[in-house]
Design goal:
By secondary structure, this protein is an alpha/beta fold. It is built from 17 helices and 16 strands. It folds into 4 domains: 104 residues, Immunoglobulin-like; 104 residues, no CATH class; 93 residues; 126 residues, Glutaredoxin.
Length: 486
């Protein structure tokens, strides 16, 4: 009898597991978005697909990285759970499109643009940006709707901006709004496009009429769903609430907000003060405005950064909205990772079959980490000064150089020829480090203290009075050691 029951149980359990796997497979298929395309000059070129994790922290989240084969055929699949704008980047190109969960997109790949050596050394270089054409688009497909809408909308705005702004063409704006609304009825079934159109029109009306931001907030944001992945929603939102905490502190309603953030570092007290603005009586909207205000304040010097971070920690602990918690975490990670007093982003570079260099690391000396491209004239000019620094301060300073964007063998031979004897690493297989350290030009420097934390950022080079700042840091460190009796 027991054997029969065990057999029945095993069959029942196996059946349940199989059913779960079937449903999981269906769900995964429904969430999987596919990008395809083919062009011979895209063969063997690295391609990165990414999107903004949110439109407040603007952290870029990489979806996948692929290299098309010899035929130049692109075939990418990745899971997404909601419509959003994504970016496909390769060489000197950055294309974008809007994608829906479970949909397939046949991209019209443009002629490939390779970054030149001059481009790779230019800190202000921007890739050529474009919107992808699709082989399989149709009249009610999201990209077709947005492209057609933007073409008409942007043309009208560019040609009439001054008249609209000066209110000489108000009735014409009303006519344009009615025209856009009626012309794009065909897109009403797509909720993402509906929201996109709504907030684009709201931006137009704001330019023409609604110079009272609170009026716009009450009509378009209060008690409206937050469209977290819709760029049109946040384009207007970010304009309405730019540096809002700083602004609100100057108003009668917000006179306590500075104390709440700087002294009390309190989420609850800040939220109560923000609620004095009736346009922000919705909890979700008010919290999002508060988060954006704290983020903006981190890039200015109005409030102490330590207070801002403690208040952000308070938001992270007390918010009931998981999505807001994630935004706060990204803000903290993004802004702290290159801030003096905190460890910089970690990385590991292989130095052979068995050796690897891990960073940051504790050391008996300060470390001056620098990124170079040996083919850069500016780099070649500065290396003798780095050599002088290395020899002059070898007891307290260690130099580590990472060569990126040019052949490591060329850099190694150049170092040998000029007797640059400090550690040289090959960063060509770790190019994500450039993004983590926000390296835009060569050379770039980062000074770390012996505890493995950034001592100075931005760090000047030898031609930017590095020694002056370095001596100040050493003196301060000695005073602290003396004060603490060490």
């Amino acid at each position: 009898m027991e054997a029969i029951l065990n057999l029945l149980f095993r069959k029942l359990f196996t059946g349940i597991i199989s059913l779960c796997l079937v449903f999981a497979g269906v769900t995964n298929a429904q969430d999987t978005t596919i990008l395809t395309g083919q062009r011979a000059d895209w063969a063997n070129k690295p391609v990165e697909v990414w999107y903004y994790a949110d439109y407040i922290s603007t952290v870029e989240k990489t979806v996948t990285e692929v290299v098309p084969g010899d035929s130049g055929k692109l075939d990418i699949s990745f899971p997404i759970k909601e419509p959003r704008q994504i970016y496909v980047e390769s060489g000197g190109l950055e294309g974008s499109l809007f994608v829906m969960p479970g949909e397939a997109y046949e991209l019209k790949l443009p002629e490939y643009r390779q970054m030149s050596k001059v481009d790779s050394l230019n800190p202000f270089y921007q890739p050529f940006k474009f919107f992808f054409g699709l082989e399989n688009s149709h009249a009610t497909e999201l990209n077709h709707l947005i492209t057609e809408f933007d073409l008409i909308y942007n043309d009208y705005l560019v040609n009439n901006f001054r008249q609209i702004r000066s209110k000489r063409q108000s009735s014409d704006v009303d006519t344009m709004v009615v025209f856009l609304d009626s012309l794009f009825k065909k897109g009403e079934q797509n909720a993402f496009f509906r929201g996109y159109k709504k907030y684009k029109i709201a931006k137009l009306l704001h330019i023409a009429y609604l110079h009272d931001d609170n009026y716009v907030v009450r009509d378009y944001y209060l008690d409206q769903p937050v469209l977290y992945t819709n760029p049109a929603y946040f384009d207007l939102f970010n304009k309405m609430f730019d540096n809002y905490i700083e602004y609100y502190a100057t108003t009668a309603d917000g006179q306590d907000i500075a104390f709440n953030v700087v002294r009390a570092k309190s989420y609850q007290r800040s939220m109560r003060t923000l609620a004095n603005n009736l346009a922000l009586r919705n909890d979700t909207l008010r919290e999002l405005v508060f988060i954006k205000g704290l983020n903006d304040a981190l890039y200015k010097n109005t409030f102490p950064k330590s207070s801002l971070y403690q208040t952000l920690d308070s938001v992270k602990l007390q918010t009931k909205i998981p999505r807001h918690r994630k935004i706060v975490e990204r803000i903290i990670d993004k802004t702290k990772k290159l801030q003096a007093g905190y460890p910089p982003p970690a990385f590991r570079i292989n130095m052979g079959d068995t050796l690897a260099f891990s960073f940051p690391q504790k050391s008996d000396r300060f470390i001056l980490l620098n990124f170079i491209n040996i083919e850069s004239f500016a780099v070649q000019k500065i290396l003798p000064q780095l050599k002088q620094l290395s020899e002059k301060h070898e007891d307290v300073l260690k130099i580590v150089t990472i060569n990126v964007g040019s052949k490591f063998e060329h850099a190694r031979k150049y170092f040998e020829m000029h007797q640059y004897n400090w550690l040289l690493l090959n960063g060509n297989k770790n190019t994500e480090v450039l993004e983590e350290y926000n390296v835009k030009a060569y050379p770039s420097y980062f000074l770390l203290n012996p505890e493995g934390k950034l001592a100075l950022n931005p760090t000047p080079g030898p031609d930017g009075h590095f020694e002056y700042y370095f001596f100040k840091i050493l003196k301060h460190r000695e005073r602290e050691r003396y004060r603490q009796g060490r």
